[in-house]
Design a protein that fits this description.
alpha+beta, 174 residues, four-stranded antiparallel sheet
């Protein structure tokens, strides 16, 4: 065999080995660059500024009943009845009613002055109110609270036919 044949033969044998080494080197280099790029992507820190204005929520009120607002059930000694409230939302956005709580003692209407021991109590529904109730923006709605008023058997007979005022506090959320 001649020297030039040996050189050619050596290249032929080492060609596939050299190609394999080059392929492995390229794969490792791609892996290192890919990991480095991923690290740089996830490890970047940005700095900036922003601003926002905090609006003020106007008071959502529980109003006295108006003509035409009346409960569908009546209260009798030893029983319970629905309570209805008119809630007004003066805000430019809807609010969700979260809860009701008692805020004082029940009183009878002015046409029943002898009804001093009413025996009427407010049974606050569990919070959050279920089913949920939303009050649309700039509106008022009637809310019925099932069986939220009860009357003991100790109520005076002079309370017959009275409409009871139950002071309540309503909590709302945006």
């Amino acid at each position: 065999m001649r020297v030039t044949d040996m050189k050619a033969n050596r290249w032929m044998k080492s060609g596939p080995l050299l190609a394999a080494k080059a392929g492995v080197t390229a794969a490792l280099l791609s892996l290192v660059l890919g990991v480095g790029t991923a690290y740089a992507y996830w490890n970047t820190i940005g700095i900036g500024s922003g601003s926002a204005a905090n609006g003020t929520m106007q008071t959502v009120t529980v109003d006295a009943l108006v003509a035409g607002d009346s409960p569908s059930t009546t209260l009798v000694p030893g029983g319970s009845a629905d309570v209805i409230v008119r809630a007004s939302n003066p805000n430019g956005f809807a609010v969700q009613v979260y809860s009701f709580t008692s805020n004082g003692t029940a009183t009878a209407d002015s046409s029943h002055p002898l009804c001093s021991t009413t025996g009427v109590t407010f049974n606050a529904p569990a919070a959050p109110l279920t089913p949920s109730v939303s009050i649309p923006a700039n509106s008022s709605i009637l809310i019925t609270l099932p069986a939220a008023a009860s009357m003991s058997t100790a109520s005076q007979s002079s309370c017959q036919g009275a409409v009871f005022h139950l002071p309540v506090t309503m909590a709302v959320r945006k």
